[in-house]
Amino acid sequence: MALIKKGPETIAAMALGDVDQWLTEEGLSKEDVTVEANAADIRAATRRTIHSTVGDTETLIGTYGDGVTFLLVEIGKLTAALKVAANIAAMKTAATPLADALDPLVAGVADGTIKLPYKVKTGGQAAALIEIGTRITSVAEAFEADDA
Length: 148
What we know:
- There is one protein chain.
- This protein is mostly helical and 148 residues long.
- It has three domains: 2-49, no CATH class; 55-113; 115-148.
- The protein is 70% helix and 10% strand.
- It contains six helices and three strands; from the N terminus they run ββαβααααα.
- It has helices at 19-26, 39-53, 57-84, 88-111, 117-120, 124-147; strands at 2-6, 9-14, 34-37.
- Strands 2-1-3 form a three-stranded antiparallel sheet.
- It starts with a strand and ends with a helix.
């Protein structure tokens, strides 16, 4: 639930996802009011925005799956080549295909045309890494509980 305030007075309360439409209907902008919402409501609204503008859960899983598969295969090839590399020149040769493949992504991040969710979400990279650790630990504990 979001509270819409004008100065100290609460003028409306509604689902966070309804705020923009309500403001438009009332002839107000976000600069005219303060919108207060709890973290769960903000997360739910962000998820709805992602779903409606980026893709459904299955599409997102597919895209991330493609990325993970690409990295596993390419890092596997890199480590296999590095394992037998006898000198720095051979190491550079081994790294070149992956570096070349990733160059457009790295360049896009550097120039700001590609944005990384873990860098822009609340708390940034540190919070994302904590969330990853928490989630994977919870999954591992579920497997442990099933094995017990």
